[in-house]
Amino acid sequence: MESIQSIQFPLDSLTPDYFHGLELVTLGGKDYFTLLNDLTSTIYYYDFETRNLDRLLSFDTGDGGISRGVMSYYHIGEDSIFLFGKKLTSYMVDLEGNIIDKYNLLDLSIRQSTYSSSKNPALFLDNMIYYNSLIWGMYEKDYFPILRYSMEKRHVELSDPLPEVYFQDGDWGKLWYDYAYQALDSKNHRIIYSFPASNTLFVRESGDIGLKEIENSRIFDPILPPFESNQYVYDSDEWNMEMNNTPIFKSILIDYENEILLRAYLKPVNSSIRNAKRSISLVKYNLNSLELMEVLELPNNYYDFDNSFFKDSFLYIRILTQDEDFIEFEKFNF
Predict the structure, then answer these.
(1) Gyration radius of the chain's alpha carbons
(2) 216-233 pLDDT, tens per residue?
(3) pLDDT over threshold 80, residue 290
């Protein structure tokens, strides 16, 4: 991988420097870098070429608006945006922010917390919305963290359990391994999943029921649970040391122009610091076959691959800095 340059987008005083949602979109023939301020339920549209803020799209919250605010978003075509809500209801809106439709994605009888970001978005496939939920520290075979919403029946259903790798002896630590990451492969009409504890990818093919493990995507040694049991003190030095010393797979990213998929792999680090910085490998797959192509290494450990995107076959990865006035990305050619 070759670093070419870094680019910056300015942040105003209302926008925190963490993001559940960012997206590169093309509207009216113009490329925009967009991000979500989830504190104010506002999407920021930046002209990608000039890096200047072009416009804001803010959503009213409360009665008559977006109840309790927006957790994440993504554009569907050039005329609508799906907003994943922070509570019961999610929304389809037009580019002016007018509500087109509502979806009650949280069924209170299913006692699981839903979550969404740009790297684990709610996705539409076969007249269903597929999305993620969790119960921290739940690693049982009858636990189904992936949910689906039937557009026809207008109700929530349990969809998929965790992969078998989660049912080893031991405990995964009630945090990083509980989340799943996914991306819509619109070229092949499927959803691709990355589970943090699994060294294989999984797919949901259009027309199929359930997830299929992709054996030829297997890489690295199997990951073992960091703890023998759940008898640990969460966020203690000992807990952080064990978690940091265990590798983890994270989000995936698709480049349609080169027909590749990247999957982030965080290497172990011997540290008891919370959220210790780790070296990151990027596992590169053929998008169509999901066969392994090569493993790339990021040059430093100050990147956040969860905030990344492709444009014109260049990879942009967020650089973690102390500057709260900008969000910065490094541009790579590979």
Answers:
(1) 20
(2) 999 999 999 999 998 999
(3) yes
Name every residue whose Cβ is closer than 8 Å to that of residue 204 and which is 6 or more positions away in sequence: 125, 130, 160, 190, 191, 193, 210, 211, 212
Closest by CA to 248, choosing from 145, 176, 162, 170, is: 176
Rounded distance, CA 194 to CA 200, Å? 8
The closest alpha carbon to 317, from 302, 153, 326, belongs to 302
**Residue 233 in contact with residue 244, Cβ under 8 Å?**
no
Residue 144 corresponds to which tokens in the numbers above?
């189904």
Q: CB neighbours (10 Å) of residue 21?
A: 23
Amino acid sitting at position 106:
L
CA distance 5 to 274: 30
pTM value? 0.95
Q: What is the mean pLDDT of residues 29-39?
A: 94
| 45: β partners | 34, 55
Closest CA to 46 of 36, 38, 60: 36
Largest CA distance in the chain: 56
- Spatial separation of the C-alpha atoms in residues 34 and 37, rounded to whole Å: 10
Give buried/exposed letters for 136-148 (b at 16+ CB in 10 A, else e).
eeebeeeebbbbb
Polymer length of the chain: 334
Of the pLDDT bands very low, low, confident and very high (cuts 50, 70, 90), residue 138 is confident
Question: What own/partner pairs with CB < 8 Å and gap ≥ 24 does 317-322 have?
Answer: 319/6, 320/277
Tens digits of residue pLDDT in 56-73: 999 988 777 788 889 999
Cα dist from 44 to 18, 24, 74, 221, 259, whole Å: 14, 11, 13, 41, 29
Helix or strand or coil: residue 240?
helix
